[in-house]
Amino acid sequence: MKTRVAVDPLTRIEGHLSVEATVEDGAVVEARSSATLFRGFEQILVGRDPLDAVQITQRFCGVCPTAHAVASSQCLENAFGIMPPDNGRIIRNLIQGANYIQSHILHFYHLASLDFVRGPDFPPFIPRYEADYRLPKAASDAIVSHYVDALHIRLKAHEMSAVFSGKMPHCASVVPGGVTVTPAVDKVTTFLWRLKELREFITNVYVPDVLTIAEVYRDYGEIGAGCKTFLSYGAFDLDNEPDVQKRKRFFPMARSLGGKLATVDPGKITEDVSRSWYGSSTHLAPSAGETAQDSAKKDAYTWVKAPRYDNGVYEVGPLARATIARMTDASSIHSKAIDDALKNLRLKPENLPSVMGRHLCRALETKALADAMADWVLQIKLDQPVATAFVIPEHGSGYGLWDASRGALGHWISIKNKRIDRYQAVVPTTWNASPRDDTGQAGAIEQALVGAPVKDPANPFSIARIVRSFDPCIACAVHLLTPSGKLLHQFRAV
Ligand code: NFE
Ligand code: MG
Fold first, then answer.
1. What is the CATH number of domain 2-477?
2. How far is 194 from 69, CA to CA, in rounded Å?
């Protein structure tokens, strides 16, 4: 017998997502993810000064504004024909790195860990699904106490970003050409001191907690695989090569398709809208993208568009980056850490595309990144410039490709008469939470839900576990807003 299960709203993510699944013989056979929040930034940008894009796109989201600041700055740099000097590049990496750490710790402790750990019986820990909480009480209580510690740690990570970005969230110092902050010894030491504390937390608390959960939920190494095709634009520039496809990045730019490494050609990216609430043409390249809302569109079921690479569905995020890192350099410390963790958990590389694989990759990349940042901060040269001068061209176009903490983030701009003529963003959660495309292919999360075990339709906790393992952010994914502030839907979360 077929049963329809709705998880609406799916809480403990950023934004408003609902999931509808058809369950047959105790497992999901078909699923749809629907973003129910409508916003409007891409239109807001049209007609403005190109430099406004760096500030306005950061307001997509308070969780990952640094990624929008960097992607937007790189998009403008591409249009202006400039690159930042070493200091600008390094300081941006530090601002972004601190935000990755903040975001990953937020995701594990404050959003996802309660899928596996029974919290106390008072809000915000209830209401909850009655799931199969398996951890012994002492281990469970320890992780709940780290929930509180993680709040303090995230504050320190925000402070680290703010040392160089002026404030968090929404950095002030990131601009096309580099940064506006003057490096000084006190800033470097303030940053390093906090980074030391963060690295201790990551090594001694975060990674061990993920491993503790992974050990008792090893079956979630077999659940939620998804499309198994991965895309990463890469992040954290290690040189100033103008061609982003040739630039060396700490996380490399690549795809994994059919188990093989492949290059990324930005010309092959399109966004389908046949099942999304947009009246604009479907299958447009982002450089020609449109954003015209049509909430009455027949057969549409979400505000998220469906980005595709060469018509293919791709998962983005920590699992994509880790898969590509292992394929690019199997002997790196990061790749070896992933292999060691899999071995200790008696799991195989084939288990990485899964709920537990996503949590593991997220935690281990946090450690790899935090360790690397300790070297990067010492590469700042106090007497060297932080930015390159530029002139805004009369006409031009550009793009910035950069992995945010949740995955591949692209910004595209066209400039006419020194003003923004078109601005389009294709963000990580748009990839992961995309609906069916023009050819009927389901999105990455929708595919990952197929096969999810659901014994009790009143407690579909495996659905929530799968969706949360992607760390979706609907505010980023839709980035649209009715200018009139019209009420479109009203929700009551229980
Ligand atoms: Ni709102 Fe974001 C990240 C971006 S997600 S959190 O990371 O861009 O789609
Ligand atoms: Mg967009």
1. 1.10.645.10
2. 23
